[in-house]
Amino acid sequence: MKRKNSQNMNGISISDSIVMSVKRKNANYRKPFSSLIAVIGFTSILMSFFGMFSFRFNGKTVAAAAIGFSIFYLILSLIGKRALWIYAASVAAFVAYAYKKSALISMGFKFVYNIIYKASYHTEINYYKAVIKSSEIKSVTTLFVFYVWLLAIVLYFFTICRPNPVLPLMITFPLLELGMYNGIEVPILWGMLCIAYWLSLLAMSTIDVGEYSGGQSGFVRKNNLFFPKRHMKLKVTEKCGILIIASVMLITGISYGFLRVTHYKRSEKLNEKRRDITEAMNDFTFENLAESLSNLTSAFGIDFEYENHKLGNNDHVRYKNVTDLTVTIERPVSGAIYLKDYAGSVYKKNEWFKLPKKAYKNKIFDDFKEYDIYPQDFPAVLAKLIYDGNDNTIWIKNSTKKSSHVYAPYGTENFGGLSYNKDLTISPVGGKKGEASYKFFPVDIDTISKEVEAINQSNHDLREVFSTSEIRDKQCREKVLKYCTENNLITYDDFFSIDYDIPYNRQYVLDNGDTIMAQLLQNSYKDFVYKNYLDVPNTKAIQEVKEAYSDILKGDISTVKGRIDILTAIKKKMQAECTYSLYPRKTPSNRDFVNYFLLENHKGYCQHFATSGVILARMAGIPARYATGYIIVEDDVAAGQKHSDNSVTVEVKDNRSHAWAEIYLDGIGWIPFEFTAGYSAKEINTDPTQPTEATTATTVTTHTQAQTETRTTISSASATNGKRTTITNSQTTQTVTSVKVVAGIGKGKGKAVSKTLKYILQLIIILVIAALIILARRYFILKNREKKFTSGKTPSRVKNIYSYSEKLLASMQLKSVNGNYKAFAEEVEKKLAGDYFEAGSFEKLTDIALKACYGQGVPDEEELKICKKTVDDISAKIYSKSDFIQKLKIKFINVLR
User: Which residues of 267-288 are buried (b: 16+ CB within 10 A; e: fewer)?
Assistant: First the structure.
């Protein structure tokens, strides 16, 4: 063809001759490649899911549906636009038919979720109770057929017709996540194919920007020929997808082979850290965000301790065998020492709370302060009425991690220097953080029970009349007289009467006037106790528990012996029906913690036994509370470090973290009562139940897998020598050196947060994260734009400035048509000149850009300034003329300013 050249006003030569270069035609494999990728994705998702769980359904029906739908939608996707109306009709048919079968699909979902729940939490308990067993196969098959149908609709369209990973990920990722999140092993081959498919689809949706998202205007220059790049079709997306799948599977194969050949094994320290992080991630929930963040940061070695009193949120507990407290006792004691730092009073919604503040607006608490005797003092003062004993001293030093906690034994004696938190806990005034010391009189339920039983109560009149003049101590005499006068207890002259709930020695009482003052205050405090510490939730679940234990809840609670008999009966029945286990699994969110433990799961650790014991004790009419801290048994003291002055130092490990019940004995006060199976004053001898699935453990000398187990004895030596705790199996021996603190779940200082506030906090966190992402995106876009404007070759800088001006004008619905830039510049000048920029500026910007694009000279710095000023003026004017919503869109969504 004869070439005809012409030249326009800008000095650009235009040739009207058409030169076409045609290479040898290559076969187009785009459709086969995309079809193969879609089939890989469809198959791998189904095989991965069915490989993780064992469902009862009609396999032939589901397989036929999978093949049929796969072929049908594969053909429709290959036909393309001509078959879109069939695609749309099939989607409508899916929605209509799914609605018709919604009841059956819903029932199938319940069966499927029950199986997933049981596999994930290693339990035989169903999450959904109201299911009809006879309809399982039919309903599950229906559910899977509809899921296969939905999967085929989405995967084939968004892989072949319009590559986009959003919807495919939304309907496929949750299936694998259900298993991976709960530690279910995913078949390696199919799992890696799923990942390869996701990566492949992501690549296909982003590589070919020109074809699928329109691209940007401009040209690609090759010698003296210019090609428009707006509608370039690279035709490599599907090939890239296939290469990605092949690469992933090749790397998987090589890695697997290398590990098999070399017998690679991670170090135990790395295993321990990996397990900590995995467990923290697995237990992460937004509902329990603060504790989840605490566990996660702790797993990475950063202490951000936060503990609440939620129940049933942990799948299991795992000790690390580290020293939490160093305790020195002046002389060994008989019985267990309970070191308390928290007392829970109100049980609701599977969580322990304190009493509301208004409950403490009671005159008795003013009396405690005035007479300097508190409920925490009652056990030490009043227990001396029934048995002799020696005062003792205890020094407690917390580890760094526990430095914010304050622990105290029962039976502390008030010699000054103590701070009292209502009727709950005590702490020393002043002193070094993380260290405390107390004088205490050892009190325990066994000793009290024996002493009361040994004394024939019928020989004691439990109502006694005293005269204040008989009290030996003058200060005590004045306090008693003042209290009795203010509370109208004086019957005649200076005589008053006291109702005792336990036997007493009159002479001892008169010689120790503080016991009279304590008994008077205790008699008044009892009203507060019975009003506030007998409440149980009025729910169907708790009523079921009451009915199940009704045979032992009725008895004589008018005497100390009668109460202890009922508590002992509760303990025996709980221990007969429930097993101590460090692997109880989480309590389902639709279950009550106590009901689930006692009537369904029958597995739990101290948290479960203590909470259930408190609720059952309250049902029997015995005031009770939930307490947490640490326990030191006689074997721990015996194995401790002896000193020449007869004192003993005990290294209290994290496996002595504990939860127990506090019961109120009239005439004594709050004392610990042990409901947990295997715990006694002498030793801790439990029978933890481990899951049958493989459970990796950190070992000291061996690394084995437990198949069946008999008994675990956590001896005092194991708790104090810092070496190991042994779990003995019928087949193997597993050495455990780490478990998450048991009673640590519920002994923090954090305040209880209402459910509404939790949701608000979650929403705030989500909004903050979203805002940070938006701000980060804006920052990087602006930085990148500024870099393009100020660095690089001058022609490129001008092109970038012009592209930015196109985006600005596009926001005002002004777009170049068919690449006629001069006509577009005239249109923009006509509509916006004088208002948005100086007249002629945009035409000047266009001329400079065309010169730079076509190689007709290099713009100088002055011309660059003109270009930059023009786009800045347009940007500023567009922003100033926008309303508030538009301004937000300009700044944070489109990032045009």
Answer: eeeebbeebbeebbeebeeeeb
Q: What secondary structure does DSSP assign to 81-110, as a single string? A: GGGHHHHHHHHHHHHHHHHHTHHHHHHHHH
Distance CA 738, CA 724 (A): 9
Looking at the DSSP bridge assignments, the partners of residue 348 are 351
Interior/surface letters 710-742, b for 16+ CB within 10 angstroms, e for the rest: eebebbbebbbeeebbbbebeeeebbbbbbbbb
3-state secondary structure of 890: helix
Q: Is the pLDDT of residue 385 over 60?
A: yes
Beta-carbon count within 10 A of 454 CB: 10
CA 866 to chain centre: 56
Dihedral (C-alpha) 857, 863, 866, 867: value to the nearest 10 degrees?
40
Length of the chain: 897
List strand residue ranges (DSSP E) for 28-81, in order.
Answer: none
Q: Which residue has the tokens 């690609």?
A: 220
Supply the pLDDT for residue 560: 82
**The 3-state secondary structure of 310-334, one letter per residue:** ECCCCCCCCECCCEEEEEEECCCCC
Pair 404, 750: CB distance under 8 Å: no
More confident residue, 760 or 617: 617
The whole-number pLDDT of residue 724 equals 32
> How many other C-beta atoms lie within 10 A of the C-beta of residue 221?
11
| Closest C-alpha among 781, 792, 817 to residue 896 | 781
Calculated CA dihedral for residues 142, 147, 150, 152, nearest 10 degrees: -110
Element (H, E) at 490: strand 490-492
CA 135 centroid distance within chain: 35
pLDDT at 755 over 80: no
Token digits for 787?
Answer: 């870099």
Whether 652 and 722 have beta carbons less than 8 Å apart is answered as no
Q: Could you give the percent of the chain with pLDDT greater than 70? A: 77
DSSP 8-class letter at 696 = -
Going 714 to 716 to 720 to 723, the CA torsion angle's sign is negative
Question: How far apart are alpha carbons 620 and 545 in whole angstroms?
Answer: 12
Q: What value does the mean pLDDT take over residues 749-758?
A: 45
Encode pLDDT of 251-291 as tens digits: 888 887 777 777 666 555 656 666 666 666 655 555 555 55
pTM: 0.59
Tell the residue number behind the tokens 């339990």, with chain if given.
123
List pLDDT tens digits, range 69-91.
999 999 998 888 888 899 899 99
Which H, E and C letters describe 352-413, residue by residue?
EECCCHHHHCCHHHHHHHHHCCCHHHHHHHHHCCCCCCCCEEEEEEECHHHCCCCCEECCEC
Please name the residues in contact with 660: beta carbons below 8 A apart, sequence gap of 6 or more: 338, 606, 610, 627, 628, 631, 672, 673, 674, 675, 676
Q: Find residue 396's DSSP bridge partners.
A: 327, 436
Per-residue pLDDT, 725: 33
pLDDT for res 738 = 37
Q: What angle do CA 628, 606, 553 make, to 5 degrees?
A: 100
Q: Are 355 and 532 in contact (CB under 8 A)?
A: yes
pLDDT exceeds cutoff 70 at 13: no
Residue whose entry in the numeric block shows the structure tokens 């470090």:
641
